[in-house]
Amino acid sequence: MALNSQQLVLASTSVYRSELLKRLQLSFVTANPDVDETPMPDESARATSMRLSQAKAQAVAAAYPDALIIGSDQVALLDGLQIGKPLTHENSVRQLRSMRGKTTCFYTALTLFNSRTGQMQTDVAENQVTLRELSDEEIEAYLLKEQPYQCAGSAKSEGLGIALMSRMTGDDPNALIGLPLILLTEMLRRENVKLF
Fold first, then answer.
1. Of 184, 147, 153, 148, whose CA–CA distance to 168 is shortest?
2. What is the rounded CA–CA span in Å between residue 86 and residue 88?
3. Judging by DSSP bridges, how do beta strands 165-170 and 120-131 pair with one another?
C-alpha cells in the first residue's frame, strides 16, 4: 500500500493541481475547500499563500478525519502589489499589461495536514517569471485562446502562456502550475508515504 493507511485528499477543485498530483501515481480524492481567498490588510504575498494553503487543508478535515490533506495556494507579487486570480477578461488584460516587460514573483504555498494527528507541514516555493514586451494584440489573442481567468497573474505556463514569457526561474516549475511537487514528495516522506 502506497499510503500509511490514510486516504490522500487534494483540497482543490483545480484540474491543473489534480493532473500534477497524478504524476506521483498515488490514489487520491479531491474536495472543494470553499475558502475566501481575500488577502488580509498588510499581509505579505508569501504570508497570504501560506495562510490560504493551510485554511484549504483544514477546511475539508472534518469530512476526512483520518487523511493526509493537501492544500495549496498561489499568490503573485508585482511591484509590491499582490495579484490574484483575474476572474474576468478585463482584469486579465489589466494584469498582463502591468506585467509585460517585468518580473513577477509567484509564491506557491503547500500544506500537508494529517487530520488524524493534527500535524501540519507548510512551505512555499518561489518562482520568478519575466514577461516579454507584449503588444495589446498579443495579450488579447492569448486571452481569447487560453481564458486563464482562474490563474493568478493570468499566465498559464502549462499552456500557451509559456509563449508570453522571456524567462522563468525558481524552486519548482510544477509550483508555477499550482502544486509544488518537490516540496510535496518531501512532506509525504515525513508522513511515511512510500513513493516507490
1. 153
2. 6
3. antiparallel
Q: Report the predicted TM-score, pTM, of the whole model to 2 decimal places.
A: 0.91
- Return the axis-axis angle of helices 181-190 and 15-22, rounded to nearest 10°: 60
Boundaries of every domain in the chain: 7-190
If you count them, how many residues does the chain have?
196
**pLDDT tens-digit map of 176-185:** 998 999 999 9
Active-site annotation holds for 42: no
Residue written as grid cell 483544514: 58
Q: Which of 73, 79, 123, 172 is catalytic?
A: 73
Q: Which class is 7-190 in CATH? A: alpha beta
Tens digit of each residue's pLDDT (9 = 90 or more) over 38-55: 889 999 999 999 999 999
Residue 131 and residue 92: Cα distance in Å, rounded? 14
